[in-house]
Amino acid sequence: MLINHPLLGPRDASEFVYIGDATLIDRPDWQTEDADVQFHDYLYLRDNPPGEHRELWFHEQGDRSWLVVARNVTTHEV
Amino acid sequence: MIYSAWTILKEGLTGNRGWQPVWRDPEPKAAYDVLIIGGGGHGLATAYYLAKEHGLTNIAVLEKGWIGGGNVGRNTTIIRSNYMLPGNEPFYELSLKLWDGLEQDFNYNAMVSQRGIVNLYHNDPQRDAFVRRGNTMRLAGADAELLDEEGIRKLCPFLDYDNARFPIKGGLWQPRGGTARHDAVAWTIKDGKCIGVEPSRGAIRAKKVGVSVAGSSSRVMAMAGMRLPIETHVLQAFVTEGLKPIIPGVVTFGAGHFYISQSDKGGLVFGGDIDGYNSYAQRGGLTIIEDVCESGMAIMPMIGRARVVRMWGGAMDMSMDGSPFIDKTAIDGLYFNGGWCYGGFKATPASGLCFAHLIATDTPHNTATVFRLDRFRRGAMIDEKGQGAQPNLH
After folding, report:
1. Where are the domains of chain B?
2. In terms of CA atoms, which chain B residue is nearest residue A13?
3. Is the CB of B278 less than 8 angstroms away from the CB of A13?
4. Are residues A47 and B222, on separate chains, in Cβ contact within 8 Å?
5. What ipTM score was computed for the predicted complex, to two decimals?
6. Distance CA B261, CA B300 (A)
7. pLDDT by residue (tens digit) across B261-287?
8. Which of B207, B217, B234, B242 could form a disulfide with B266 if both were Cys (CB 3.0 to 4.6 A apart)?
9. A1 touches chain B (CB under 8 A)
C-alpha cells in the first residue's frame, strides 16, 4: 500500500506507524462537567466505518510527520 | 439422506443425481423467540446451546452469506487455554473442556487433536514470565508445564536452537492444547433446530436479538445506534503444500509473532500479526507476509523449502483491550457478542454456551461475568498484553 505524502510523494505504508481514527486529534475539554464520559467515548469508542476512513499515520521511518490519510478500508484505496 | 460408502458408490454410478440438499431454504416466520444475527461458529453455537441447555426451539439464525462462512471457515484451528488474567483463564478453560466433549455431544468428528501447544522462550525474563503464566493457569485448573531446552529438543528436534539472535532456551507446554477441524462446528448443527433466513426477505420480529457478527460488529450495531470499543482489522494466515508429519502440535515463536501447526492433510498452517490498520477487505499486504516468513525462518529454517499454496485474510473485531464482549446492551432485548480479536475459534463452544445463558436468563454465565461493554468506564480492562487502548497492538 502506498501513501501519498504531501511533501515526499508516494511512500510505502511500511515506513509509517498506524495510530487510528483521525478523531483522536479532537481531545474533549477536560474542564466540562461530563469530561469523564466524553473522555471514555473519545478514548475507547470508534465509528469503525466499512468505507472511507480518516486516520492518523506517523511517518516514523521518514520525516516524522503526522498525516491524516483518507483511505477506503474495504478497497485499501488511499 | 444417509451418507455411506454404498450411497457414494450408487450415486457415482447413477451420475450423482440423487443427492438432497442438507439444509432447507425456508421463508422466515414472522416472529421468533430468539433471533441470532450471524451464522458463524459463535452464532450457531449460541443457537445450539439455547436449544440444548434452555429448551428454546423457536430460534432463527440470520446470515447474509452462507452459514459457517465467517471466520469459522477461515482460521488456523488452534485450541488452547494459556491465558493469564482472572476472568479470561476460567472462560477459555471452560471452552477447552467443551471441545473435549464436543464430539460425543454432537456425534460428529470435529477432529479435536490435543497434541499440545508450546510457547518458546529465548531469554531469562521470558522464562520467568512463563513460570508465572504457567502457575496462573494451573491455579485455574488448566494444565501447563515448563520445559527446558532439553525438553523442547525431545519434542521438536527440528528447531534452530543455536540461532545467534533468538536461541531457544525452553518453552511453556500445554499438553491439552492442539487443533480442531476448523469448520466442524458449523457442519454439526443441521438437525433443524436452526433455520437459515436472509435479511432481505422482509421484517422479522423477535423477543430477543443476539448479535454475533465478529468482523462486522460495528456495522451491525451502528444500525441500533451504538458505537463500540472495536476496530476491524485484517489477519492473514498461510498454508503450505502437504508434507509428511513433522510438527507434533502447535509451536509459537517467543521473539516475534509466529505460530505454526500441521493439518491432518499435512499442510503447515501458520500465521502471525494482524496488518495493523483498519480493514474490511479480507486480504492483507506483503509486509506482514514477509514478517511472518522471517519469524518462521528464525525458529525453523527448514520451512524455507516448503511452498505456500494458500493464504487468506479475515476481518477481525479488535477490541480496545484485546478481550471479547458477551453482554446485554442498553437496548432492551438486544444482546451483543463480539470483540474476539483473532482468538475466537478456540472460544466457540464457551462463547455459545455463555451467550445462550445470557440471552435465556438475562444474567451472565458465571465464567463470563467480566466481558462487559462498560468495563472501560469502570477501569476494569482485561488487557493480557498490557498495550492500552490501541487495538492494532493487541
Report:
1. 27-75+182-229+321-393, 113-177+232-319
2. B287
3. no
4. yes
5. 0.93
6. 12
7. 999 899 999 999 999 999 998 888 899
8. B242
9. yes
